Amino acid sequence: MVKTTTKDQKNTKQQSKLHLIDTDIHERAQYKDLLPYLDQPYRRYITDCHWLQEKHMPYTQPAVAGVDRADARVPDGRPAGSDLSFMKEQLLDPVGHEVGILTGALDPSPSSMHGWYEMATALASAYNDWQIENWLDKDERLYGSVHIAAQDPQAAVREIERVGSHPKMVQVLLPIDDKLWGDPFYHPIFEAAERHDLMIGMHHNEPPIHYGQWPRYFIEWHTLIPTAHMMQVTNMVFNGVFEKFPKLKLMMIEGGFTYVPFLMRKMDQQYKDLRHEVPWIKRMPSDIIREHVCFTTQPLEEMTKKEFLQIIEQMGSDEMVSFSTDYPHWDYDSPYESLPPNLGEDLTRKLFSENARNFYPKLQRIGREK
Amino acid sequence: MQQVVQEVIVCKKTDLNPGEMMESTFGKHSIVVARASDGEYYAFLNRCIHQGAALSKGKICGAPEPTDNLGEYDFKREGDILRCPWHGREFDIKNEGCMLANSKFKLKNFKVKVEDENVIVYK
Fold this sequence. Notes:
The structure holds two protein chains of two kinds. By secondary structure, chain A is α/β, with parallel strands linked by helices. Chain A has 16 helices and eight strands.
């Protein structure tokens, strides 16, 4: 007789399918992939003029394979995230994804495009078409994000109108960059998002955590990503975005969530004292956050079950956090290993699928159809 | 009654150069066999203690020594440090797989001996 150990049980569990809604997966385009989707003259700026997006981290990447998992490079040598078949084999099939939300790896944002908004707009359009044709239309589990050149709101609205009604586009991805998103300058973008049942996703960007610049070390930058998220949430709430656009919700991606109890408490405290400055805010900021903002889990700190549940309790809701892997990046969180064990069936279901389904209107529709 | 695996030839000595590693199996376990810079062989469960990544997909490398001087990088022990393919955690293959950042944690390791041309993992 073979004795079954705890480890064996864990290994068995590992093979079980999770029916996960993964709120952060990075598909990757190389510029040559976008060429067929780019009009002239933008295509020739890449093919003939050696144009490259001026964007780089000023660090030697400290992980084993740069910003990627070392085992996620496509076997034929292409970069991680650039091949749907390999993504299926390594992630979607074994985990049993019900839905994977693509968050891209393109960043036509002011920090990388300077003033050339036209090129940023062209790249965003090309990226959206490439994403739809090569990912969303090829795997029923994959849903997408509308990329825009946010620094030109009129062009951004045109792009949302162009692709936002695609049934598998669930959010507009806004760069966290050098302008906070509560600014009324951006209201046309929110109006367009609302028209198409799109939510807003904000994924961490570089480098705004450090006065718009880079700290000396990667470890500082990576530690402080939540500070950029705190700035955006604070700014969106106090600038009344969710009062003006009541259907709009915000998914904060790849900043974790353990900072949220602090932020809610601090904003409530400030509101009690300083409400007169923002009289368009008519309820406690923490209530607005609970109703309008959701946070992805990754990168998770290692926590005990008790610690994890304490944070959820302090948020006052277990419906504000959605699991994300960040595949194929180096700080990937395994859906089997990163959460504390035995969180309970109800909470686990909420984290793994229900909260994300309730957040994205287009996923609710799919859920009902099924 | 299933027989408990006591001893397994996991590779030939010549399969690994110093500073290299390979995946193998010991009974039901996937293991990683690593050869340190001094030519010694070591074996660990092929599973990171953090989130379970297959360590054999990582890298054998060195590491900067702890220092008292800000800005000083003294990179040593090339071939003796195993880094996880995901989060890059460093484990000392010559010191029972202890994590460099916190030596309270270590990889699960196996006994290894060399007989003739064979590298053998045993209980």
